[in-house]
Amino acid sequence: xxxxxxxxxxxxxxxxxxxxxxxxxxxxxxxxxxxxxxxxxxxxxxxxxxxxxxxxxxxxxxxxxxxxxxxxxxxxxxxxxxxxxxxxxxxxxxxxxxxxxxxxxxxxxxxxxxxxxxxxxxxxxxxxxxxxxxxxxxxxxxxxxxxxxxxxxxxxxxxxxxxxxxxxxxxxxxxxxxxxxxxxxxxxxxxxxxxxxxxxxxxxxxxxxxxxxxxxxxxxxxxxxxxxxxxxxxxxxxxxxxxxxxxxxxxxxxxxxxxxxxxxxxxxxxxxxxxxxxxxxxxxxxxxxxxxxxxxxxxxxxxxxxxxxxxxxxxxxxxxxxxxxxxxxxxxxxxxxxxx
Length: 340
Hints:
By secondary structure, this protein is mainly α. The protein has a domain at 166-319: Glutathione S-transferase Yfyf (Class Pi), Chain A, domain 2 (Up-down Bundle), CATH 1.20.1050.10. It has helices at 57-69, 108-114, 140-149, 168-183, 185-190, 195-215, 229-245, 260-270, 281-291, and strands spanning 48-52, 76-79, 126-129, 134-137. The chain has a four-stranded mixed sheet.
């Protein structure tokens, strides 16, 4: 999610362009953190800091994957607050509003350490090279892939196989549709600049959600019996659907709670260590309703919806499956505790 282009430009808001369809800016830093260090950033425990925000679905992916794989000791994490100004995500959750490792008030500073003329959005997630205090990568799609494939030497014992080799080709197809039609589809609805653009985006979104409802009727997870990265990617949108996308983004044919299969699936994941304990609904609502002020000029944050249902029994056990396959769940946190 970016603080200067499409998702969180400023607290004054500038997201909807009259008469236009919404188009996400997918330009990111192409450098990667890899085992062989071919881009100048070798995988090293303790060298990097993941900067995320619980409000952001793209960053939430990285937070979930880091926790599932047990990378907390190898890759530290800094969290930005949910609401920011036109310049940047800020570290206002930390004492004094300063990240304790980087010494920055704004994530923007890490981007300018990389390039003083950095021209693109200040996005989370970003992984910062602590010795130079410069962003190493901000490609949200690649970050979670690399956490699995490139950081495997630092995975916890029992870390799940989020990319089962026999399923990878099908996973790519499923994840592409989930991203294009659902993860990004809600934004195409919310930021549509014309009725025609909105209607087309709405139809595409609900076609995809109906497909997912059908797909998940006979399988516990998107790819079958175990959790994969495909589930991580879908979950972060589902978690935000009723609190934000249904009303704020006008994705209102149904609430998630009115889609029995997807709602049970979402609760199943939420109640799995790594998912619900990385989700902060208050920060999610604060971000969207305050920052997108051209959509919500009053910046009033709704009190609802009632979130009690997320902990209700989901009944998905009858489909069988083993959430973590041959691996194990990450440590269960005390109730009400968020992963750090």
